[in-house]
Amino acid sequence: MTGSGERPLRIVIVDDEAPARSRMRDLLADCAACLPLTIEGEVDSGRAVLALLAARAADVVLLDIRMPEMDGIEVAQHLQKLDNPPAVVFTTAYDAYAIRAFEVHAVDYLLKPIRAGRLREALSRVRSAARPGPEVLRELQPKPRAFLSAQERGKIHLIPVGEILYLKAELKYVTVRDARREFLVDESLTRLEHEYAERFVRVHRNCLVARHAIRGFERAAGDSGEGNWLVVVNGCDEKIPVSRRQQHIVREFGKDR
Amino acid sequence: MASSINQNAYSSALPNFRNLGILLRILLVVNLAAIAAAIMESKGPNDFWPRLLDVSVVVQPLLMLSVLALVLLNDLLKHLPYYLGAVAVLVLELVLATLLYVYGRPLLPVEGTWLERYWLLTFLVTLMLLLYFDLRGRALSPAISEARLQALQARIRPHFLFNSINAVLSLIRQDPKRAEGALEDMADLFRVVMADNRELTLLVREVALCREYLGLEQLRLGERLRVEWHVDKMPGDARIPPLVLQPLLENAVYHGIEPRTEPGVISINIYLAREQVHAVLRNPYEREGNHHAGNKMALANIRERLQLHFDAEASLTTKVSDGAYQVHITMPYVKDRQ
Known about the structure:
The complex is a heterodimer of chains A (257) and B (338). With 257 residues, chain A is of the alpha/beta class. Chain A folds into 2 domains: 9-140, 3-Layer(aba) Sandwich (Rossmann fold); 147-256, CATH 2.40.50.1020. Chain A contains 8 helices and 15 strands. In chain A, the strands form 4 sheets. Chain A has a 5-stranded parallel beta sheet, with helices on both faces. A 5-stranded antiparallel beta sheet of chain A has the order 10-9-8-12-11, with no helix packed on it. In chain A, a hairpin with a 2-residue loop joins β11 and β12 (207-210). In chain A, α2 packs parallel to α3. The longest helix of chain A has 14 residues, at 18-31. The mean pLDDT of chain A is 86. The longest helix of chain B is centred in the N-terminal third of the chain and has 32 residues, at 48-79. Residues 1-8 of chain B have low confidence and may be disordered. In chain B, 60% of the residues lie in helices and 13% in strands. Chain B has helices spanning 2-5, 20-41, 48-79, 82-104, 115-140, 142-151, 158-174, 176-194, 203-221, 246-257, 293-310; strands at residues 201-202, 225-230, 239-240, 264-273, 276-284, 315-321, 324-332. Chain B has 2 domains: 2-140, no CATH class; 151-332, Heat Shock Protein 90. In chain B, α3 (48-79) packs across α4 (82-104) and α10 packs antiparallel against α11 (293-310). The interface between A and B is medium-sized, with 19 and 23 residues.
């Protein structure tokens, strides 16, 4: 245990099922007797916890894994973009794959129904425990993420992957373009290409375009010397050059139609 | 004894020699062997028919005698333990072959054969037939299909079990009455799941079980789960394999309701049409979510159990249309225990 003068542990509960949240509240009340803690909030989705943590800080997020829209492991990945990311303790009723992965990477998790003793144990070591890095979290969930997240003024902005038109690598960051605007995300283009191999196609050394957003191709007016085809993207005016090495996608695109 | 260890073990038995199918099989196999022998003996294509005739002259009388003897001795052989019975059949065939050799040879135009050859060939063909009937018996044994049925018993997802226990735990302090009800429903559900489910059950019972199951899911999913029942025209006295509908509803909740943030409707429509029981289950379905192996396994399981109980008279079809997943089961309307 750390010093007794320390402020109480600030906890957020994330679970899509109301009874599970209420059970967690009861358990935390039981733990409060020997471990100073406060419940900062109780939400039913990953999106809601990201919004909540933009407004207030927390030390621990108790995070259910199986949730609609965005599963807990993906939520944990987005939480890392916060300035002071909270520690995460996963909760799950049954998930053979995830549990095996947790064991392998020594990530803390609680099995539902959760015992008060087990919860106290996890909470008491949360301040000192090492946090799983982004690589470990990615390995816990081999499924592609449903969202990319961009940090803007302390807030986490979620961009649904299905709405992305193209991804462009620029220096350290990747620019994400959807129908409305652009975001900067801290990712690597190669890794994104890997994660979403079915959704995006590489048209250029520094650019991935969503297959569904490709309206067609047209000849470049002036000869820039590099490629002579441009991708016309649905929902935005910008045209993206196709590099010489990727010219074959123009032919393949025609075949798919 | 093996049978005391495993009650489902198949115990070998001689076939019923008075069964026309069995007799036809014996005739077929022996004649095929005779044809094979004739082919082996013949020196050219034109030599085949004379050879077959030579072989038949010996084989057919022996075959007729054997069949006659087996039909007559059937009841006697039936009472012997299998291995003694099999030995008795082998001995009988050898005796018949010897008799034919000794008394028949002067009457038949065969030359230059030796008794041991008759013995060996008779022995081999008889042994082959005995092995064939034993294998066939094993393959058709009801014990095997019962064992298959048992192995196919529907199983509840552990995911559901632990989440439900968790939901009940949350109720104990705030609403002990509801917690009691939920535990009772769970007990009913597991009683059926763990029961010996090889016999047909009443449709009304399966529907009651489904209501209990959905009640438990409602407990944890609340507003997100909406259920529409259309069972006014349901033939409640129809007999159906147990746990045919409940696992489908479990799939519907797992794949159709849980991955959604908005509320979703599961509809259950059961009716009778042209002496057939129809059950149509629909749930919301988003194409984005990849379809899981678990779902296919449950479907294959139910399909196979329907087939074991009703053969070709039952069917299970699925279809995806405008954001909904639909399972349609058709079963014959069976009222009484068969």
